[in-house]
Protein 1
Amino acid sequence: MSVRNLNPVIDAIKNRRSVKNVNREEIPEQDLIEEILEAATWAPNHHLTEPWRFVVIAKNERLRLGESMAEALKTTMKTGDPRVEEVLKLEREKTLRAPVIIAVISSQSGGEKIVPQEEIVAAGAALQNMLLAAHSLGLGAMVRSGPHSYLQPVRDYLGLQEKESLVGLVYLGYPIDPPGASKRSPLETKVQWRGF
Ligand SMILES: Cc1cc2nc3c(=O)[nH]c(=O)nc-3n(C[C@H](O)[C@H](O)[C@H](O)COP(=O)(O)O)c2cc1C
């Protein structure tokens, strides 16, 4: 057996899956949530700008987030669509699918040396750290962000400044079912080797 098969980091990276079904009511202990947030902050970031912040949402605040998601979705729907009310009701309740939602927010630090893309990439790395930390702690986590989660009503709910953007909403809780399988394309379809 290759020594790589025993590597816990690579093992976690490959075996982490998006967990859809978690216990909707049982909030994970706060120290576990803090561990996950702490892991996020150890992501690489250029110039040590730490271009992230987090809003941790539970209980009735999930409904306030859901309301903002529904309001955002409404702006994308055709007026007169007979399904509007039904779709918006479902949307409001979607945030109840996990007991905790962590909004991962990327901030643009500004300054001559700062490349805006790098700030987003760093916050994305923080998000992946969170998913891996949750997996390693036995929690289920999944990013759920439809296109409307980036719109103004959700920005307003999260209190985003102009230089901030939502990177993703991480749904977190105790897993109910084992997550489904996932797949990836063969490596050779994604890699070009040069100079080898
Ligand atoms: C930024 C981002 C947004 C996502 N938004 C959604 C979403 O809205 N709904 C959803 O079902 N999955 C969402 N996902 C999760 C992907 O569906 C999931 O990562 C993919 O199916 C691969 O599965 P795996 O995470 O188990 O490898 C999102 C993932 C990322 C990184």
Protein 2
Amino acid sequence: MKHFFALPLALLLMAAAPPPQALEQARNASNTLMGDLQKTLKATLSTQGPAAAVKVCHQAAPAIAKAVSAQQHLQVRRVSLKHRSPQGQPDAYEAKLLKQWQQSKIVPEEHAEVVMHQGKKVLRYLKPIRLQAACLQCHGPASQIQPEVKALLRKHYPQDQATGYQEGDLRGAVTVILPLKP
Ligand code: HEC
């Protein structure tokens, strides 16, 4: 009688566990996106300051996400419950996880799950993003953001919600949708 349940259960668990190769690919895409963004941001911040970095970020961030997605045949982007860019709006799956992490204050290193997405089997991967001190000059309380930076943020992001954070706060996540073979 035991075996009667054991086999279907084993098959079910195998189906839900992310294939190791796909998981590696999702991690890699996430690291590449964050690494490329960080490099661009750091270089501009240190040589030209935060106002110039807003302009660079405004152009480079979506372009880098698009390039990594195309190169790696998947979708990778950054999302937040309080997003700055309209493209940073989470879908229902992402929003549910972000809310769960925020409310419970239990934030995993990463989240990976095989699910059906728009009728196709995909790996969904999320990597939480936390704020460091250097991020606050563009995401911190109003008092910590230079007037020039504020003006640029208003200009490029009239719907900006991504300020008022403290160091260490959960800012959002990198999210990857990787198509799997059916
Ligand atoms: C120079 C100003 C600046 C700094 C410093 C900065 N950001 Fe941003 N951040 C932006 C801009 C501008 C965007 C919108 C980019 C776009 O248009 O895609 C953004 C978008 C984001 C997003 C995407 C979600 C959203 O709200 O649209 C995340 C996540 C994020 N930033 C996290 C960080 C973290 C973490 C740091 C520190 C390591 C940081 N930022 C430092 C300006 C900045």
